[in-house]
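Hi C.,

You asked whether I'd gotten around to modeling the 279-residue construct. I have! Everything is below, sequence then structure, no commentary in between.
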Amino acid sequence: MGSKLTLKAAFISLMMLAIFLGAWQLATQPKESVVQAGADSEYAAMMGKGKEQSGFPTPGMVGKSFVTYLSDPFYDKGPNDKGIGIQIAYSLGRVAIGFLLAVAIALPIGFMIGMSPLLYKAFDPFIQVLKPISPLAWMPLALYSLKDSDISGIFVIFICSIWPMLINTAFGVSSVRRDWINVARTLEVNPLRKAFLVILPAAAPTILTGMRISMGIAWLVIVAAEMLVGGTGIGYFVWNEWNNLALPNVIFAVAMIGVVGMFLDLFFGWLQKLVTYRE
């Protein structure tokens, strides 16, 4: 039953993709008066080899960008000309560092808040004020204070990642059944063992939900941050190709951002299922 459902869903997805590509092709179809030479010059211009763009790229033009960049994703021809694999690696590296720093801060504080109503009330005003602030609003202050674009990008990822994890950790810990904690107290289990053997396994699905949300936000934010600070990364690649009016390359990069984000989400979804099944 499950395999049949998967096949039907895959068929519907392929049909939707075919319809989308067909509509795109029709919408961007060159007029009959445009000769092949004109189409070739249009593609050259949109790939950054000409001076201007004459129309929105067709699926074929974007397909050529896929072939060009995926055939050699890790080339390095200087500071402003690196393969898409290298650009994505830079972005993932910044996201990983900022995300892990947020984990190191959010989980312990979330545990304390979840286990203590007093600390929850003390921290709540700060959380409610800081949580709605756009992560990119911190970028000018980070650049001024840290004097480094890479570290500033990591700081912005840290800021945007910490709140979903902290809130979900506190909620998960506070939602652990009281009778489990009472049993651990009756057995005189020390606080550290109680945290790791009783509270953490019970709160793990909720904590991972917060981590999954944080990773999704972090991947969104790093693209925008790299557009602002430049240098390297998939966000810089998008902005640089836009400045070159290479729209097929921009669309290709947007698709790659979506694919990487999908795999990151699938990874955390797999972790959630793993923890849930072990329960």
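If it helps when you're writing up: The CA atoms of residues 156 and 190 lie 37 Å apart.

Thanks,
B.
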